[in-house]
Structures
1.
Amino acid sequence: MNLNLTHKILDKHLVEGTLAVGEIVGIQVDQTLTQDATGTVAYLQFETMGAEKVDTELSVSYVDHNTLQSGYRNPDDHRYLQSVAARYGIVFSRPGNGICHQVHLERFGQPGKTLLGSDSHTPTGGGLGMIAIGVGGQDVACAMAGLPFYMTTPEVIRVELTGRLKPWVTAKDVILELLRRLSVKGGVGKVFEYGGPGVETLSVPQRATITNMGAELGATTSIFPSDARTLEWLELQGRANDFQRIEADQDAEYDDVVELNLSDVEPLIALPHSPDNVKTVKEVAGKKVDQVCIGSCTNSSLQDLCTVGEILRNKKVHPDVSLGIAPGSQQVLELITERSILGSMIKAGARILESACGPCIGMGFSPPSGGVSLRTFNRNFEGRTGTADAMCYLCSPETAIASALRGIVTDPRELGEPPLVEEPDKYPGSESLIIYPPTDNSDVEIIRGPNIQPLPQRPKLANNLKGSVLIKVGDNITTDHIMPAGSKILPLRSNIPAISEYVFNPIDPKFSERAKEKNGGFIIGGENYGQGSSREHAALAPMYLGIIAVIAKSFARIHKSNLINFGILPLAFVSESDHDRISFEDELHIGELHKGIETGKFTVENLTAGYEFTVWCELNNKEKKIALAGGRLNMVK
Ligand code: MIC
Ligand code: SF4
């Protein structure tokens, strides 16, 4: 046998197709997760499928993104989610219980299983040896209804780890090193499978930091083998029964190999405004810092917070820095309280935030105008902090806290000996905020508040499309540009007409108005269009505004399938120079669309400038049907 770990797990779950790079395969999904910001739409779609109960081994609905509850909207959403969970046999993790990925790692993840989540950082589960993939809510809804998940078989890249991390160098620096080398597009169509002698030097939470931020590489997912360290973690969590040893065969085959000597990694930091804009901390040292945030699904484990708390012991945060700390889960919060870590943080002057996504998604704790914010998070896209001109840097908790103490970007190695953080004898179950569904769900009523609006629909695909270019954007446009989040907009996630007012708001506040005036039209994009989150709203709201097609140089994986699922054609330029030729407000016409869906080729007439160009859209048979139906919901119905 010469199977790599990825193929071993996929093979066991294969229900359709063959595992050959580029081929479409159908995978059986063991577990699903949703979070509140994507969950309401996912469950609204699930409801229309008419299933009696979820058809998975485990489905969990987390509330972690929008926990501010300013006004009735969020609590309405939470109540809807809780009632849907009880109705359909889904475990419900209440607000305050923690960030979905951290809690899932602690309580539910299992080596060798498949997990589909309506959040792009679902690959965190890869730290436990799972195939964990982030997708749009509609894919999760289908998986909950027992349908397979269809995907293009990715390449499998072996990341050969050797050596051992030096003191003060962390898992965060490892993934920043990969982002520095490979860029935010470097992982598109790939799975990063970690192996080699360096693996056993990393704990499960460290591995999870690395697989979590594999999302920033654009990867389909990332995975570590399940070994003695995995067993150790599951035993501490009281879940040894969930353990299964699973690793690649000795002579496993890979599509490519990346070598990484852990001993060579240095403390690194990503500069504004992209996670791949990486420099060594030394190069940036001395820069004045206004704010430091510790937390997020990347770096909020017990180990991370204990390290931070120990460094802070008997010290004081610099007077010019505001330090916010959000523990990743109730379990972490419970343990740092017991171990007097929380006390040392409070005494040092930290502001303790709720166990939730919080500042990572712009839900409070925004930096001041032009402020420098150092965050242990995974994304530093422009405006994501909630302050349009803030400068957001991404680094390890060690670098962040050293900088919080000194008031300037500081290499943590200047702090002397690193603190010793011991594992507890046992992690507490911490299930007071978890609600298991009742066995008899027959009289559970689904509760909808006025914020829960029905989903808009799109008619079948017409054979001719005409419209004007409503916006033309460059490379690496993120879903945060297309459909921003933050405390003002996030509460509108269950109300598509209301949220659609904010499409492209950070780059063109008049976009929505113009789209409505013109009855829709085209979006022109550059490379890696739609990178970042899994939010379907970045497709659903443009669909509501009448967007017919996005014509771009290339697309990010999750966003591309969200576009198809909501009846928007993701068309790619055949010749990149056609991107340069096209102008804002040009009138475009595409004829013979139905034939184009079949052949993958379309001719676009630029009626304003008087020329034609070719675009392509390679769809598998299922996607062709979805595109013709005007979206997946129409088809499933
Ligand atoms: C993010 O980190 O961008 C989010 C918020 O978690 C998104 C999901 C969302 O927009 O609700 C993601 O990563 O998919
Ligand atoms: Fe939440 Fe941030 Fe993680 Fe997204 S990246 S799940 S917003 S903590």
Note: The CA atoms of residues 417 and 544 lie 56 Å apart.
2.
Amino acid sequence: MKIGIGNDHSAVELKNAIKDYLTQQGYEVINYGTDSTEAFDYPLAGEAVANAINNHEVDCGICICGTGIGISIAANKVKNIRAAVCSEPVSAKLAKEHNNAQIICFGARIVGLNMAKAIVDAWLNASFQEDRHIKRLALIKDIEDRQ
Ligand code: RB5
């Protein structure tokens, strides 16, 4: 599985740690974020990861900024993308099971490395439950299409 990862300047260290963690497990991780601690605008990384999913360069994505919020807002502006900000693994699991989120986001200023690993594990190991959730995702798509 190919995972795109994107980040701003606040999340370089956490991005590298998560990239190493996933690479050791056999995932291919493609970096769309900055490797510099110089100020970097998070919308650029959020859009790059989201576009990589829509272009089938990667299967899913991880986006990290200071809070996870700004980069998730940016990623969610890209058509067909569902990016979920999670600060703990229960929400991360449900973000896949109920929302089929292709991107998980979290904040380098909010969660530590162990929590970030738990969030990523919960999301990657969960499956979309389809059923009643298909209609709800279609309603979200309808909102997008009406804009
Ligand atoms: C950057 O200072 C910070 O605003 C950014 O990382 C993020 O938290 C925005 O949502």
Note: The radius of gyration is 14 Å.
